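User: Now give one protein:

AI:
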Amino acid sequence: MKKILAAMLSGAVVLAALGGCGTYTDDGTSSSGSSSSAETSSAESGTGESTDTSADTSADPMTFTFIGGQPVTLNPILSQSTDDGNSFYLLQSSLFRYTADGVQNEICETYDVSDDGLTYTFHLRDANWSDGEPITAEHFAYALYCYTSPDMGCPQASGYYDIAGAEAFNTGSGSWEDVGVKAIDDKTLEITLTEPNDDYILQLATSAPTPLRQDFVEAQGESLGSSVDALQYSGPYVLTEWVLDSSLTFTKNLEYWNADESFPVETITLLDVDDANTAYSMFESGEVDALASVSTQYKDALADYTTIQTGGGGMMYIWINENGMSEEAAAVLSNQNFRNALNYAIDRSSTVAAITPLSTPYSRLTLPFYEGLDGGSFADEYPVDCPPLEGDVEQAQEYLALALEELGMSSVAELPEMHFVTWDTAQQRLMCETLIDQWKQNLGIETIQLDQYPIGTAIGNYSSNQFDIFAISISSSLTPYDALENFVNGGDYNNGIWTNDEYDALVEQVKAATDKAEKYALTQQAEQILVDGACIIPFYGLTTAYATQDYVEGFAIGDLGAGFQFENLQVNK
């Protein structure tokens, strides 16, 4: 299932285009073609009204205002950020919903699984879009078409390769009619997998496709998700105002199937406030009811209001592109000893304590919250050799000496210029500058320069491999072995920056294994290869820390996948 860039991506909205719209037909065929973009009064500003099914707010309804990350894009096909997912959690529904209390049935009322564990048949409840139109199985089938069609450009398409035929369709070697997705009738959706998966319902709850209507998607074209009128809403709220780089206003959707029993707050306002001092002042003065993320500098001042979630928030990684931005850089970065020198020269403990003390320094792929077979942590039961959290300068220097010898260089002064790319926030700058300084102090490397861009530009560089080194976080996967798929060549987050055939083969063995002990043993072997390869360097595990006023109850943020989990949110002023 699809995975997302974690919540570090906040602060700017990118109106991404829907690439290469294709036409989906009920008979399972598709043809390429362009669609006209529907014009809306708010398409350029990102604001507008959509009030046909929203609650009447004239009688001073319960409202909630908080500061949090703005979505990068609300195009559901192109989205890959946790900040996007947090908003989609309020705006869209799916077959199942992952809540603070666990997995809950949503549009799926009941389901059946075939004896071989491959075919899931979902029986849908009566539910409507915000405009009153019924949500049907065909809308889910079309969504899966959009996520896997090679014409749509979904960056998360490989996350759906567990559906039979999806990989072949997405890579151009198969057709949609061979994909294991079928709308039997309006109320029955059938999905056939490539292999049995005991975690499939949890996957659907945490990262499942939301329904899409073909007529609307094709009418919007490149404008899909760019304004309140360029979205359709199947979830508990509709977006009634969107001021780019400023705020989003969510208003209760009375057409939502469970509107009377869940999401009681009628109006939610999400503010974008980049400055930590301003955010703290607004919270202290009561202008906002919550902070979705507590700044490090105010963690002590807000200790009485802060809740810390240490679940599966995700991991910050340092990515090294062995192909480089120049031929000279590629020659150096493709050298494994050089990458290991960078890896071992990092003092994760002191760096994380300085820049984000609520997070946990880490130097291996598998976070400690994954359970092992014997009741403990997977990380403890299946250890791997990895750099110490304090670093090992002597070992790093030995790796560097080997690298220079292999590269035919006599000193670090001969190393080419290399570009460390990130986006323009203070924390990212501090983190990257600290790493650059450690590489300078511990290895004598002075040719790595920091390039900061607006977040949209930076993520564009990341997606197109226009970097030598990049720092970015991704959300946690559901299992330790599921996480491996991110990093195979061509995986969700390894777009050719690192290739290891042995690793890729092991991941295939993990996927094929049916015995959990075998899966875990193979996972351990694959993780060791990834850590040794040092192109994708784990740095620290993310921790969610949010602050709420004393009168707020039921505020929660998803610890798997994404979501402002406000099913039971109460504002008792």
Observations:
- The CA atoms of residues 323 and 330 lie 5 Å apart.
- The first strand starts at residue 22 and ends at 24.
- Confidence is low (pLDDT under 50) at residues 1-61.
- The chain is about 25% helix and 20% strand.
